[in-house]
Amino acid sequence: MIDIFTTGGTIDKVYFDALSEYQIGATALPDMLQENNVFVAHRVTQLMRKDSLELTDADRAAIHDAVVASDADKILVTHGTDTMVDTARVLSGISGKTIVLTGSMQPASLRISDAQFNVGFALAATQTLPHGVYIAMNGEVFDPAKTHKDRSAHRFVRD
Fold this sequence. Notes:
Elements: E1 2-8, E2 13-15, E3 22-24, H1 29-35, E4 42-50, H2 57-69, E5 74-78, H3 84-91, E6 98-102, H4 115-128, E7 132-137, E8 140-142, E9 147-150, E10 155-158
Parallel strand pairs: 1-4, 1-5, 5-6, 6-7
Antiparallel strand pairs: 2-3, 7-8, 9-10
Protein backbone atom coordinates (compact mmCIF):
# COMPACT_ATOMS: atom_id res chain seq x y z
CA MET A 1 0.00 0.00 0.00
CA ILE A 2 1.26 3.46 -0.90
CA ASP A 3 -0.11 6.40 1.04
CA ILE A 4 -0.33 9.50 -1.15
CA PHE A 5 -0.62 12.81 0.66
CA THR A 6 -1.41 15.91 -1.38
CA THR A 7 -0.63 19.42 -0.20
CA GLY A 8 -1.49 21.59 -3.19
CA GLY A 9 1.11 23.37 -5.28
CA THR A 10 1.20 23.88 -9.02
CA ILE A 11 0.17 20.29 -9.71
CA ASP A 12 -3.32 21.11 -8.37
CA LYS A 13 -3.65 24.67 -9.72
CA VAL A 14 -6.73 25.55 -11.72
CA TYR A 15 -6.67 28.68 -13.86
CA PHE A 16 -9.85 30.72 -14.20
CA ASP A 17 -9.13 33.55 -16.66
CA ALA A 18 -6.76 35.00 -19.23
CA LEU A 19 -4.84 36.85 -16.53
CA SER A 20 -3.68 33.49 -15.15
CA GLU A 21 -5.49 33.92 -11.86
CA TYR A 22 -5.55 30.56 -10.16
CA GLN A 23 -6.68 28.70 -7.12
CA ILE A 24 -5.48 25.43 -5.72
CA GLY A 25 -8.33 23.05 -6.50
CA ALA A 26 -9.26 19.58 -5.44
CA THR A 27 -6.35 17.25 -6.05
CA ALA A 28 -6.05 15.85 -9.55
CA LEU A 29 -4.38 12.66 -8.29
CA PRO A 30 -7.33 10.23 -8.10
CA ASP A 31 -8.41 11.04 -11.67
CA MET A 32 -4.83 11.03 -12.93
CA LEU A 33 -4.12 7.61 -11.42
CA GLN A 34 -7.37 6.14 -12.76
CA GLU A 35 -6.87 7.58 -16.26
CA ASN A 36 -3.38 6.07 -16.37
CA ASN A 37 -4.51 2.61 -15.23
CA VAL A 38 -2.53 2.68 -11.98
CA PHE A 39 -3.46 -0.48 -10.12
CA VAL A 40 -0.84 -0.45 -7.37
CA ALA A 41 -2.65 -0.37 -4.03
CA HIS A 42 -2.84 3.23 -2.83
CA ARG A 43 -4.94 5.71 -0.93
CA VAL A 44 -5.02 9.45 -1.53
CA THR A 45 -5.46 11.94 1.31
CA GLN A 46 -5.62 15.66 0.60
CA LEU A 47 -3.91 17.29 3.59
CA MET A 48 -4.17 20.88 2.38
CA ARG A 49 -4.64 23.08 -0.69
CA LYS A 50 -1.79 25.57 -0.55
CA ASP A 51 0.85 27.07 -2.75
CA SER A 52 4.12 25.89 -1.23
CA LEU A 53 5.22 29.48 -0.65
CA GLU A 54 2.28 29.77 1.75
CA LEU A 55 3.15 26.66 3.79
CA THR A 56 3.96 27.38 7.43
CA ASP A 57 5.96 25.47 10.01
CA ALA A 58 2.61 24.24 11.36
CA ASP A 59 1.71 22.92 7.88
CA ARG A 60 5.03 21.11 7.63
CA ALA A 61 4.44 19.65 11.10
CA ALA A 62 1.01 18.42 9.93
CA ILE A 63 2.60 16.74 6.88
CA HIS A 64 5.24 15.20 9.14
CA ASP A 65 2.61 13.93 11.57
CA ALA A 66 0.50 12.42 8.77
CA VAL A 67 3.50 10.54 7.41
CA VAL A 68 4.49 9.28 10.87
CA ALA A 69 0.90 8.19 11.64
CA SER A 70 0.53 6.29 8.35
CA ASP A 71 0.58 2.51 8.61
CA ALA A 72 2.21 2.40 5.16
CA ASP A 73 5.97 2.27 4.75
CA LYS A 74 5.76 3.76 1.24
CA ILE A 75 4.69 7.39 1.11
CA LEU A 76 4.28 9.77 -1.83
CA VAL A 77 3.75 13.48 -1.13
CA THR A 78 2.69 15.87 -3.87
CA HIS A 79 3.95 19.35 -3.10
CA GLY A 80 4.65 22.72 -4.65
CA THR A 81 8.17 22.90 -6.01
CA ASP A 82 9.26 26.21 -4.45
CA THR A 83 9.57 24.83 -0.90
CA MET A 84 9.58 21.08 -1.57
CA VAL A 85 13.17 20.79 -0.35
CA ASP A 86 12.24 22.48 2.96
CA THR A 87 9.44 19.99 3.62
CA ALA A 88 11.61 17.04 2.58
CA ARG A 89 14.22 18.12 5.10
CA VAL A 90 11.55 18.25 7.84
CA LEU A 91 10.60 14.66 6.95
CA SER A 92 14.20 13.44 6.93
CA GLY A 93 14.10 12.36 10.58
CA ILE A 94 11.43 9.73 9.91
CA SER A 95 12.85 6.22 9.76
CA GLY A 96 11.45 2.95 8.45
CA LYS A 97 9.65 4.48 5.46
CA THR A 98 10.37 5.37 1.85
CA ILE A 99 9.12 8.94 1.41
CA VAL A 100 9.14 10.53 -2.04
CA LEU A 101 8.07 14.11 -2.78
CA THR A 102 7.09 15.21 -6.25
CA GLY A 103 5.23 18.02 -7.97
CA SER A 104 5.11 19.76 -11.30
CA MET A 105 6.19 22.92 -13.03
CA GLN A 106 2.86 23.10 -14.88
CA PRO A 107 -0.63 22.28 -13.52
CA ALA A 108 -1.95 18.78 -14.17
CA SER A 109 -5.02 20.39 -15.73
CA LEU A 110 -2.99 21.78 -18.65
CA ARG A 111 -2.58 19.80 -21.87
CA ILE A 112 1.18 20.15 -21.68
CA SER A 113 2.30 19.34 -18.14
CA ASP A 114 5.02 17.36 -16.45
CA ALA A 115 2.57 16.32 -13.70
CA GLN A 116 1.61 12.88 -15.02
CA PHE A 117 5.18 11.90 -15.79
CA ASN A 118 6.43 13.11 -12.41
CA VAL A 119 3.70 11.28 -10.49
CA GLY A 120 4.34 8.05 -12.41
CA PHE A 121 8.08 8.35 -11.91
CA ALA A 122 7.60 9.11 -8.20
CA LEU A 123 5.27 6.12 -7.78
CA ALA A 124 7.95 3.87 -9.27
CA ALA A 125 10.61 5.47 -7.06
CA THR A 126 8.46 4.97 -3.98
CA GLN A 127 8.22 1.26 -4.75
CA THR A 128 11.89 0.69 -5.52
CA LEU A 129 14.03 3.01 -3.37
CA PRO A 130 15.26 1.98 0.08
CA HIS A 131 13.89 3.71 3.16
CA GLY A 132 14.73 7.39 3.23
CA VAL A 133 13.45 10.73 1.94
CA TYR A 134 13.78 11.69 -1.71
CA ILE A 135 12.65 14.22 -4.27
CA ALA A 136 11.63 12.73 -7.63
CA MET A 137 11.29 15.32 -10.38
CA ASN A 138 11.59 15.14 -14.16
CA GLY A 139 13.23 11.72 -14.28
CA GLU A 140 15.78 12.29 -11.53
CA VAL A 141 15.92 11.33 -7.86
CA PHE A 142 17.47 13.84 -5.48
CA ASP A 143 18.72 13.78 -1.91
CA PRO A 144 16.96 16.77 -0.30
CA ALA A 145 20.01 17.47 1.88
CA LYS A 146 22.03 18.20 -1.27
CA THR A 147 19.46 19.74 -3.60
CA HIS A 148 17.84 23.05 -4.46
CA LYS A 149 15.40 24.33 -7.03
CA ASP A 150 16.97 26.45 -9.74
CA ARG A 151 14.06 28.78 -10.45
CA SER A 152 15.61 30.30 -13.57
CA ALA A 153 16.16 26.86 -15.15
CA HIS A 154 12.81 25.47 -13.87
CA ARG A 155 14.43 22.36 -12.46
CA PHE A 156 16.03 20.80 -9.42
CA VAL A 157 19.81 20.55 -9.25
CA ARG A 158 22.32 18.92 -6.96
CA ASP A 159 24.35 21.18 -4.67
